[in-house]
């Protein structure tokens, strides 16, 4: 197959940008979530160090957001080929998949960071808040999962 | 009730975090190369997608285990004895 209108030389550019966007934006969200809830943990642990195990949960959940991005970035990177075998359509689909998981991860990471910070500080004073914090964190986490589902669905087009 | 020392706490958190970080990656590549492409001979696209789905499922199982452990066993240490 040769370079033509449907297989332009810049076709893979979109796919590469999709893979990069997936991991960059999910990592941004995960980094914000880790840092924001990390300050909460550091402030809380001074008085209640026995709660560290419980308060690590927002950090772990923020890390999972980055794994979502990693999964999609690896999938897209595995699908990128030479321009002659890579139609422009596939590039667009890969770009869409990467942006879907990337920006959902960014949003979910922001939510996890803010909820984790306030939740961890609150749990130190009222331990019954823990269940509520976990529930809110799970609802923040599924925002990233929705992006992952849409991205996988787009990738299989 | 088991006394929680800083070392045992670190060990627990470290083991769970290692599982959460490495289990999905191992699952993805092991399923893709040995199970789907090796054993079943599935195509590249579908084996990729199913490996990714299974990796995410394994990830959530590991996260659920961690939350379970933290909920039922975390923070059970006695507060330090008050010293006058």
TrEMBL record, chain A:
Q: Which UniProt keywords apply?
A: Hydrogen ion transport, Ion transport, Membrane, Transmembrane, Transmembrane helix, Transport, Vacuole
Q: What is this protein called?
A: V-type proton ATPase proteolipid subunit
InterPro entries in the record, alphabetically? Answer: ATPase_proteolipid_c-like_dom, ATPase_proteolipid_csu, ATPase_proteolipid_su_C_euk, F/V-ATP_Csub_sf
Oligomeric state and interaction partners are given as: V-ATPase is a heteromultimeric enzyme made up of two complexes: the ATP-hydrolytic V1 complex and the proton translocation V0 complex. The V1 complex consists of three catalytic AB heterodimers that form a heterohexamer, three peripheral stalks each consisting of EG heterodimers, one central rotor including subunits D and F, and the regulatory subunits C and H. The proton translocation complex V0 consists of the proton transport subunit a, a ring of proteolipid subunits c9c'', rotary subunit d, subunits e and f, and the accessory subunits VhaAC45 and ATP6AP2.
The places in or outside the cell where this protein is found are: Membrane; Vacuole membrane
Residue ranges occupied by any V-ATPase proteolipid subunit C-like domain in the UniProt entry = 17-76, 95-154
Record-annotated membrane-spanning stretches: 12-35, 56-80, 92-117, 129-155
| One term under GO cellular component | vacuolar membrane
Q: Which GO terms describe its biological process?
A: vacuolar acidification
TrEMBL record, chain B:
- In Pfam terms, one family for this protein is VMA21
Q: Which UniProt keywords apply?
A: Cytoplasmic vesicle, Endoplasmic reticulum, Membrane, Transmembrane, Transmembrane helix
Biological processes per GO annotation: vacuolar proton-transporting V-type ATPase complex assembly
Q: Which GO cellular component terms are attached?
A: endoplasmic reticulum membrane; endoplasmic reticulum-Golgi intermediate compartment membrane; ER to Golgi transport vesicle membrane
The role this protein plays is: Required for the assembly of the V0 complex of the vacuolar ATPase (V-ATPase) in the endoplasmic reticulum.
Task: State the family named in the UniProt similarity comment for this chain.
Answer: Belongs to the VMA21 family.
Write the protein's name.
Vacuolar ATPase assembly integral membrane protein VMA21 homolog
Q: Which organism is it from?
A: Asbolus verrucosus
Provide the organism lineage as a comma list.
Answer: Eukaryota, Metazoa, Ecdysozoa, Arthropoda, Hexapoda
